[in-house]
Write a structure and sequence with these properties.
heterodimer; A: two-stranded antiparallel ribbon; two-stranded parallel sheet; about 40% helix; B: mainly beta; five-stranded mixed β-sheet; 11 helices; 55 strands
């Protein structure tokens, strides 16, 4: 019995030890960082600011690219024979302007903007609270710049959205009017325009700079009659902003291709790029547009999806001598390594025609299937030989050519200095044509509208331009009837309304 | 968890109670029983006994404790006033026994090598009677014809009687006027036989079920079947499924009402979906919690099926609540075999199996393809290469499998052991699908400190080398046209880059996906008997699981051509430590019996992984063995990670019974988990259950046909924390790709999730009422049960507004769900004869699932549309809806009335009140949840031959025939192949997900049939058992479903879909032998 007592004593003791020692339920963290243990050194701070730029990858070539180009008359993702790219009808909705709050591209685009804004707010508050940062005001201005860019996108596509700037305020925000959003973006840009860096160097590439802020301002002023009609026209302000950009070290590259080659970070024409790398992924325009067999002649090691093509009339509008057709669109027959034309799974020759004809399974709206190989493909960004994975080529959200055309447009709209406007347009046309015969002697608004289309094909500009020039709602013969004015804005996605009852839906949805 | 068929004499009180001759002056005595396992050579057992002035009972009890023997005797045979002084030191048991019995004036007898009976020395019949006597004699056997020694018989109304001898024979002088003989034997039904004029009697004693007790594992302990108050199903070895089985749940398939086990795929390496009483989670697993030999959270593959003795399934929350925050989906308790006292056994079990596919997709043959293209004037130049290829045939085979299990077991007085090695080599019916498994296990049990300390060690090791199939090859086999060859005549491979195409045979031939999984653990459990009825025990468990995965895609294959060769290696390790301490107290006073348990448990799990991949290899020689040889390494190509979680628990249970008539069990567990949010670190799970054994009531005594009738009622709360990954409640930075700065790329960091400090377990409360019955000596027995299971705080990833949140979704505890159901089990002997016996058992269950709530103040959603009806060209279709008032697994889509004359769908487009088909016209078009799940098993034995067959099925569910939706259309022709259905259905529309593809899923399957023959080895002393058998699995299925197999994946929120990458099921025939020495 003695032994028993000893054993029970040991047991009781060890139990009480267990109770004391093993009720600690703290989580030990290994491969993630607790928030209070990071953000001390410059390298750490830089790595925390970086995600504000990574959010830009949602612009191209998926969400905003598709919303812009496939709702305008620039591009189409047709349903191919056999049903490829039917995708629940979302591309038909974009083409026919029948999108709804449940259309997944509408949701995805809204979410990527809102997540980016929240991310900016979080990083902003973190930098603001961090005592060990020196040039805090420049960093904060940079973050506000990216946030302003996203609000600029929302302003353009969704109009009425909640403005949130304080990450620590966790209440559910309410909708602000498009006018409020416009004024907010303008005041943000004005607040930072002289704080952010102004160099045009490798070090500032891909960052918010003075050039970016003034280009944004130019766009704000150029579109003010659409976005904030109460505020009146701002053509002169637009010209002033363009002048600020043009005074910086940007140049119109002698070669158009410089801004679209694999190593296009060397282009001095690019003002604000989304920086891509094969290693980090993101630029998959080649997958989105090329036919399954195109990688054979193009020598790519990648599976492609046979999706987006240019609208036939868009391509046909180019002058035959305009080299930008070939620089922007892939057309014609595709050959295998033996020089024989490739045959598709539908037993047809692989020839990318400009024309696209709906032939099969027509529904009551006239939507149906087209041949697999039809349509001009996007080849504006050079395909890297032997490419495996996503493309390295950066995508310029803003480049100087756009600024030239903006200034020209504002000048013409103001009725001022047509010679300067013509000069600006001709700078681009000289690059696009071998012969000076194609230069314009004086430009009209229509000339500038068309020039923007030739120059900025696939560059997420078509929708905004068409709205500003009043052509967005027009009938596209053979494709879509005239659409209702409420289509000038996309709806707030249903998922956002479900998550936040304080939000209001845009009119007409 | 062992189901031991014990003769029931748990304690001395009972023993007395059951001897109904107490007041009679018997010349002879009864006997009884025993049990425990025991063997021939007990004379080798040594023991030490030292006593002064002890009663004989004390002596016997001491010997019992030291040796595990339970002597059976009637108290009256001993003179209670007599005291004995005994001193033996390390003396053979037999000698001790002889000596003690001699002094006490009793005899002992060993029966069946299993029982020791103590009785008074038989006096020769010298009693002089005033009455005239006559002699009767006869033989007593059990219902299998085996002679029964030790059976008591008396002349009714007298004390005149005897017991049968070793051959079951008896002789007795009875008074001339005696009318009836009463035969009794514990564990057997008492029997009255009229004497009449007969002098020779043959009496067959029927087994009394009441005396045979199953011992059932209940979590941190065992109970006899009679004491159980919760809803617990127990399946033991003889009822296990036969044939090619990988793990414990295969053995249970269809056997337990309410437990559904579904193989969603024919892939032999894929896990089955196990559901107990419906789905009860939206996010985490609804998989029952697995406990093996008392160790919670084990992997099923850690134990070979041949090492399993029994499996208990804790079905209701009152039973499962003792496992707290991990038991909401029920608990499966596996008990492995152990060595037995005085037994030395070598057992071999082996089989060889052949599997062949039951159904392959009916795609166009080359001839059909050519007929179609020529009939439709399609130019096939460049497509038709003149071959006739059956692509599915090319990637499939007859799978040969073999299994060997060798075990050694034995034991002595103070220790026993069992060691086993198993080897399973299994081939899937697809050529790249295989599995090889080694299991080794050692169980060793040692007693010490005067038998007060009992230490059990279990060590085990599992190695599994397996290759899951690459289901991509099914897609390719569907799409590749039959008129192209696998290889050209010159031996070069045919290949194509068209969408969803490529040579699947080449993929299989050159690509590899190899896993090397190991699990090993050591486990010590020490039980210390501190004083009478009070036991403390401590369990320590240390385990490591690792997996090494190698993936290689050859540069020429469809998989690897884009990367010019791709190789990956990943490695993970999971370490588990467990400490459990329990105190047990057991006390009986008169008719009251109390059992109490208190325990503490600490568990931590550390997981770490590492991996690397590379691409673009100039040679395919290395496979995945030289990643550095690749030429295209990206920053995201190397990774490693680590996480941990901890669980601390306190638990207790009290069980009280009065006269085994009224039984109450209370349990309580408190769980603290590191995964829970800061505001909810601790969770409490109470339960209460009670049972009323109605047949014990005096008013039921006349209903002698009732062996047992028990009403059980229980209520308990249990939890599920499976949906919470570690660190989900914390705000953390994680790496987030790269950023560009001045010509270089650097790592970006970002907050990785929306933190939710309120995160906690899902809570299930369940009410359960059940009735167990057993009539006419177990001729019929069964259970009827009803349960109502309410789960709240369901974890789901909710949409939250961005901003203020960083991400648009967040894991939160919001919704609630109910599962209500009835279960029914009936089994019995249809034929019960000496040489011929037919036992049948049927179980049925019905469960009704319903989402009751999906929103609260903070988070809301009207419905969750989920599932992916991805078909070529249809990416944003969902298949299912989770909505308040509906059940999980509700199909949601367009309602289709068929096809019109042009082959276009006729869809109901007025559901939204407007013409034109929109997403708002979608509606509820079916449910994947069956109304009824059932199993029907039979064992028919005739002499040494046994036929075992087992049907199971479901009724009243719907399935989505996804492959028909994907491939039953001519629009891919001629460049891609389609199902033969495409030609007959006449669809010309784009395939659209709709009720057109929803089919009835009811089926009846002959799941298992086994014929075995046991040789009569009584003449061969070296062999104890020899049995040969042949088993067929998945022999046939009756169903109206037109797809490949009506049994499909039932996991998650989108169950009931036969996907377009579905791995067809196989039929297996195996032959085996089971021999013990």
């Amino acid at each position: 019995m003695k032994r028993t007592k000893i054993f029970s004593l040991i047991l009781v003791l060890s139990l009480s030890f267990i109770y004391q020692g093993c009720t600690d339920l703290e989580e030990e963290v290994y491969d993630k960082l607790p928030v209070d243990e990071f953000g001390q050194t410059t390298a750490q701070i830089n790595s925390l600011i970086a995600p504000i730029y990574r959010t830009l990858k949602g612009v191209f070539p998926s969400n905003y690219f598709l919303l812009s180009e496939c709702s305008s008359d620039m591009a189409i993702t047709p349903t191919r024979k056999g049903g490829d790219w039917w995708d629940g009808g979302q591309f038909k909705e974009l083409r026919l302007h029948t999108w709804t709050p449940n259309t997944s591209l509408v949701r995805g685009s809204y979410n990527s903007a809102m997540e980016s804004i929240s991310s900016c707010n979080k990083i902003y508050s973190m930098i603001e609270e961090n005592q060990s940062i020196e040039n805090k005001d420049v960093i904060l201005a940079e973050i506000r710049g990216v946030r302003a860019f996203w609000y600029f996108m929302l302003l353009d596509y969704y109009g009425n959205v909640p403005i949130v700037t304080d990450f620590n305020d966790t209440s559910k925000p309410s909708t602000n009017s498009r006018k409020e959003v416009y004024e907010f973006v303008l005041s943000e840009l004005n607040a930072i325009k002289d704080v952010v860096r102004d160099d045009v160097t490798a070090a500032s590439y891909g960052k918010i700079t003075k050039g970016v802020v003034y280009t944004l301002l130019a766009k704000m002023y150029l579109n003010s009659m659409v976005w904030n009609p109460d505020g009146g026209s701002k053509w002169q302000e637009c010209i002033n902003a363009c002048n600020e950009v043009m005074a910086l070290d940007y140049v119109i590259e002698p070669s158009f291709k410089t801004s679209f080659v694999v190593q296009n970070q060397n282009s001095k024409e690019i003002i604000f790029p989304i920086v891509f790398s094969t290693a980090d992924g993101g630029n998959h325009i080649h997958k989105r547009t090329l036919h399954y067999l195109d990688p054979i002649p193009l020598n790519l090691n990648v599976g492609t999806w046979n999706g987006v093509s240019a609208m036939p009339e868009y391509v046909r509008a180019y002058d035959d001598a305009d080299k930008r057709v070939d620089w922007s669109f892939l057309t014609g027959p595709m050959y295998d390594t033996n020089g024989e034309i490739l045959i598709t799974a539908h037993g047809r020759e692989l020839i990318h025609t400009i024309d696209i004809e709906i032939k099969y399974n027509l529904d009551e709206d006239g939507w149906g299937q087209v041949e697999q190989e039809e349509g001009a493909r996007c080849s504006k960004w050079e395909f890297e030989n032997g490419l495996n994975g996503d493309m390295e080529n950066d995508m310029a959200i803003f480049r100087l050519a756009d600024v030239y055309l903006m200034k020209a447009e504002a000048l013409v709209r103001l009725g001022q200095d047509n010679a300067e406007a013509t000069r600006l347009v001709n700078v681009l046309r000289r690059r696009a044509f071998d012969s000076d015969e194609k230069l314009l002697s004086s430009v009209t608004l229509e000339d500038i509208y068309q020039e923007r289309r030739y120059e900025l094909a696939w560059e997420i500009s078509a929708r905004q331009d068409m709205i500003r020039f009043g052509t967005f709602l027009d009938e596209i013969p053979g494709w879509k009837p005239e659409s209702n004015e409420d289509r000038l804005l996309f709806p707030i996605p249903q998922s956002a309304l479900d998550a936040n009852p304080n939000l209001d839906q845009n009119p007409g949805y | 968890m062992k189901k031991r068929r014990e003769l029931d004499f748990p304690d001395r009180e009972d023993r007395k109670l059951n001897l109904s001759f107490k007041k009679m002056k018997l010349t002879l005595i009864l006997t009884l029983l025993v049990f425990v396992s025991f063997g021939n050579g007990f004379s080798q057992v040594k023991l030490s006994v030292n006593f002064e002035k002890a009663t004989i009972q004390e002596v016997m009890e001491t010997i019992e404790k030291q040796t595990d023997f339970i002597f059976l005797y009637k108290d009256e045979i001993f003179d209670n006033n007599k005291r004995y002084s005994i001193d033996f030191e390390n003396v053979a048991f037999e000698e001790v026994l002889n000596s003690v019995c001699n002094s006490a004036g009793v005899e002992y007898e060993i029966r069946n090598e299993r029982q020791i009976i103590l009785k008074e020395k038989i006096k020769t019949s010298s009693t002089v009677s005033v009455f005239q006597q006559r002699m009767v004699s006869g033989v007593v056997t059990d219902d299998e014809g085996q002679p029964l020694p030790g059976v008591t018989l008396v002349v009714k109304g007298t004390t005149n009687g005897t017991i049968t001898d070793g051959e079951g024979r008896f002789q007795l002088e009875v008074p001339a006027d005696a009318e009836t003989l009463v035969f009794s034997f514990v564990g057997m039904e008492k029997q009255e036989v009229p004497i009449e004029e007969k002098s020779m009697f043959t009496v067959v004693m029927e087994t009394a079920t009441i005396g045979i007790e199953e011992v059932v594992a209940i979590g941190y302990g065992t109970q006899t079947r009679r004491e159980v108050t919760g809803s617990i199903s127990n399946v033991s070895e003889e009822d296990f499924n036969k044939g090619l089985n990988q793990d414990a749940v295969d053995l249970l398939k269809g056997k337990v009402a309410g437990l559904t086990i579904t193989s969603g795929s024919g892939d032999i390496t894929s896990d089955e979906t196990i559901r107990l009483r419906g789905t009860s989670s939206l996010t985490g697993s609804s998989q029952p919690f697995i406990v093996i030999d008392g160790v919670p959270g084990m992997s099923l593959s850690s134990v070979a099926p041949q090492d399993i003795e029994s499996i208990s399934v804790l079905k209701d929350a009152s039973a499962a609540a003792i496992y707290g925050s991990r038991s909401a989906s029920g608990v499966i308790l596996v008990t492995t075999k152990q060595g037995k006292y005085n037994q030395s056994l070598v057992e071999y079990d082996g089989y060889l199996a052949m599997s062949s596919v039951t159904n392959v997709p009916d795609v166009l043959t080359a001839q059909e393809w050519r007929d179609y293209t020529s009939a439709n004037n399609i130019n096939t130049e460049g497509l038709d290469l003149g071959a006739n290829t059956d692509w599915f045939d090319e990637i499939m085979r007859t799978g040969i499998s073999q299994n060997h299990n060798l075990s050694f077991s034995g034991g002595g007085v103070s220790s026993n052991y069992r060691a086993s090695i198993s080897y399973l080599d299994q081939q899937g019916v697809v050529k790249d699908n295989s599995l090889e498994r080694y299991n080794a296990r050692l169980t060793f049990n040692q007693k010490a400190l005067d038998n007060k300390l009992n230490v059990t060690f279990i060590g085990a090791m599992t190695q599994r080398n397996y290759s899951p199939t690459d289901t991509r090859n099914f897609v390719l086999a569907y799409n590749m046209i039959p008129v192209v060859p696998v290889k050209f005549d010159d031996g070069t491979w045919f290949d194509t880059q068209e969408y969803d195409q490529g040579n699947p045979v080449r993929n299989i031939e050159f690509n590899k996906r190899d896993n090397k999984y190991s699990l090993y653990f050591g486990n010590i459990n020490a039980e210390l008997n501190l004083f009478e009825g009070f036991t403390a025990s401590l369990r320590l468990h240390k385990q490591r699981e690792t997996n090494d995965y190698g993936l290689f895609y050859d540069s020429d294959t469809e998989r690897g051509r884009n990367d010019q060769g791709f190789a990956q290696r990943t490695f993970w390790t999971e370490d588990k430590k467990l400490l459990e301490a329990t105190l047990n107290y057991e006390k009986s006073i008169d008719d009251h019996k109390l059992t109490a348990l208190a325990g503490y448990s600490y568990e931590d799990n550390y997981y770490q992984n590492a991996g690397a991949q590379n691409r673009q290899f100039v040679t395919d020689f290395f496979g995945y063995n030289n990643l550095g040889a690749g030429e295209n390494l990206r920053p995201s190509d190397v990774w490693s990670g680590k996480n941990m979680n901890k669980l601390v628990s306190f638990f207790g249970r009290v069980n009280y019974n009065y006269m085994m008539r009224y039984i109450v069990t209370l349990s309580l567990r408190q769980d603290g988990s590191s995964k829970f949010g800061a505001n909810h670190k601790w969770a409490t799970f109470p339960s209460v259950s009670a049972a009323w054994r109605i047949n014990e009531e005096s008013f039921m005594q006349s209903a002698t046909f009732i062996d047992d009738l028990k009403l059980r009622v229980g209520y308990g709360v249990s939890g599920n924390q499976d949906g919470i990954d570690p660190y989900k409640s914390l705000q953390l930075y994680g790496t987030s790709g790269q950023y560009y700065d001045n010509g270089k790329w650097y790592r970006a960091y970002q907050i990785s999730q929306n933190a939710n400090p309120d995160l906690k377990w899902e809570e299930t409360s369940m009410f359960n009422v059940g009735l167990d019955f057993n009539f006419w000596n177990s001729r019929i027995n069964g259970t009827v049960e009803y349960y109502n299971k309410q789960t709240k705080d369901l974890l789901y990833t909710y949409q939250v507004p961005v901003p203020p949140f960083l991400y648009p979704d967040m894991l939160a505890n919001v919704g609630s769900m109910s599962n209500k159901g009835v279960e029914f089990l009936l089994s019995g002997d249809i034929i019960r004869q000496r040489d011929f016996r037919w036992t049948a058992s049927i179980n049925m269950s019905h469960n009704k699932n319903k989402i009751t709530d999906l929103s609260n103040d903070e988070f809301s959603t009207s419905s969750i549309k989920t599932g992916d009806a991805w078909i070529r060209g249809g990416s944003s279709n969902t298949t299912h809806i989770v909505e308040e008032g509906k059940e999980v697994g509700t199909f949601y889509g367009w309602l289709c009335y068929g096809l019109d004359g042009d082959g276009m769908y006729i869809m109901e487009d007025m559901i939204d009140g407007e013409e034109g088909l929109t997403n708002d016209d979608r509606t509820y078009i079916g449910s994947a949840q069956p109304k009824l799940t059932y199993g029907f098993s039979n064992i028919i034995s005739y002499k040494n031959l046994e036929l075992n067959f087992f049907f199971r099925g479901v009724y009243g569910n719907d399935l989505l025939n996804f492959s028909k939706m994907s491939y039953a259309t001519t629009q891919w022709l001629p460049g891609a192949n389609v199902l033969h259905d495409a030609l007959t259905i006449g669809l010309s529309d784009n395939p659209k997900y709709s009720s057109f593809y929803i089919e009835k899923g009811s089926f009846l399957r002959l799941d298992n049939a086994s014929l075995s023959y046991s040789f009569d080895v009584s003449g061969i002393s070296e062999i104890q058992k020899l049995r040969v058998y042949v088993t067929g699995q998945n022999l046939f299925t009756i169903t109206n479903y037109t797809g490949l197999d009506p049994e499909v994946e039932m996991d998650g929120l989108d169950p009931g879909v036969e996907g377009r990458e579905y791995y067809p099921k196989s039929r297996t025939v195996s032959v085996g032998v089971n021999v013990s020495f």
